[in-house]
Structure formats: structure tokens, C-alpha cells
User: What shape does this take?
Amino acid sequence: IHALVGRRPQDVERIAAEGQLAEGWSVNAAVDLIYVVTMPGAWRELTRELGWTTEQYSQYLTRLIQAALLK
Assistant: This one.
């Protein structure tokens, strides 16, 4: 899943080709979602304003992306 967090379309394409992209998701939509939830503004808000640690941010975002996009 760490490849997904990198937002590289080819990584999501590989996951889809391996049959691991959840039903109902296109590669483009998955890449768009990853892009939005990993934007710097979200990181700043969660870590600076809401007190999340960098480790919490990484763990929670990984879990969110896995749950949403992987079978």
C-alpha cells in the first residue's frame, strides 16, 4: 500500500492488473482519491492543528486507503 500513498498512477494500474483494486473503482478515480487525501493541506491540518503525530497520520491514511481501495 505504500506505493498507493505515492500517488503514482502506474502503481495503481499494477494493483488493478493484479486484481486487487476494489470493485467500483477505476484507476483514475483511485489515483484522484489518493491525491486528495494525501494533499499537504490535509497533513498540516491533522498534524499541526489537530495534534496527530506523523506516525498516526501515516498509519491512519494507510488504513483508510487500504479499506477504500483494496479488495
Residues 1 and 66 are 7 Å apart (CA to CA).
